[in-house]
Design brief:
This protein has eleven helices and twelve strands. It has 253 residues and is of the alpha/beta class. The longest helix is centred in the N-terminal third of the chain and has 11 residues, at 33-43. Pathway: Amino-acid biosynthesis; L-histidine biosynthesis; L-histidine from 5-phospho-alpha-D-ribose 1-diphosphate: step 5/9.
């Protein structure tokens, strides 16, 4: 049996509220995290990703009260990212109810953090988030601090290293496509799938069910993450899954 593909709503949180923008800018409030997470679970979401978008910039860990309240309101897996700088932060977020942690800025600055988390909590707990911006044909650069700072690091090479260090999953966001609803960066997803063996979560650009189909089939992603199309009520998770199933993509209905 083929592995089931996942559909994952993303909650970008700023000052306790879910927000959404375009290309990581112009963030506007959408609603309360725990309420939205519960609504998406009822629609059939496989997981929830909660990202504190200002935690790294402000030098703090994710808002633990928001994590706790959200985790108490759902039964599906919860991944939390933002401000994870060390093992103490990881432990605090997991104790607050998260099932997995997403690391980005801190992992780029100190790659050994990936190995430490994997050794202490297991690779299944480590999601390495990669915010990538296209710089040439089939070349992307890693950005950190919420997509604000370029690193000069090649995204494909960084993905391979992250997996070698113990990443159990990659959450890959195309900065160019984020919030545009123009579709995922299929080239980026395909290149990553050819170079790593861990599951890839596609992020950035979903505008309709066919974009998700492209990411899963043409891009060879294992899961699709989206925000705008769910937050603004354009599509439900169930509607997305029904479309994917009609196209032969294995999903949990």
């Amino acid at each position: 049996m083929p592995l089931v593909k996942r559909v994952i709503p993303c909650l970008d949180v700023l000052e306790g509220q879910v927000v959404k923008g375009v290309r990581f800018e112009g963030l506007k409030p959408i609603g309360e995290p725990s309420r939205l997470a519960r609504a998406y679970e009822l629609q059939g979401a496989d997981e929830i990703v909660l990202l504190d978008v200002s935690a790294s910039i402000e030098g703090r860990t994710a808002l633990l009260d928001v994590v706790y309240k959200t985790s108490q309101n759902i039964t599906i897996p919860l991944t939390v990212g933002g401000g994870i700088r060390g093992i103490d932060d990881v432990r605090a977020v997991l104790l607050a109810g998260a099932d997995k942690v997403s690391v980005n800025t801190a992992a780029v600055k100190d790659p050994s953090l990936i190995r430490k988390i994997a050794e202490l909590f297991g690779s299944q707990c480590v999601v390495v988030a990669i915010d990538a911006k296209r710089v040439a044909d089939l070349r992307w650069e890693v950005y950190i601090y919420g997509g604000r700072k370029p690193t000069g690091i090649d995204a494909i090479e960084w993905a391979k290293r992250a997996c070698e260090l113990g990443a159990g999953e990659l959450l890959v966001t195309s900065i160019d496509r984020d919030g545009t609803r123009e579709g995922y960066d299929i080239d980026l997803l395909r290149e990553l799938s050819l170079n790593v063996s861990v599951p890839i979560i596609a992020s950035g650009g979903a505008g309709n069910p066919f974009h998700m189909y492209q990411a899963l089939v043409d891009g060879r992603a294992d899961a699709v993450l989206a925000a705008s199309i769910f937050h603004y009520g354009k599509y439900t998770v169930q509607a997305i899954k029904q479309f994917l199933a009609s196209k032969g993509v294995p999903v949990r209905l």
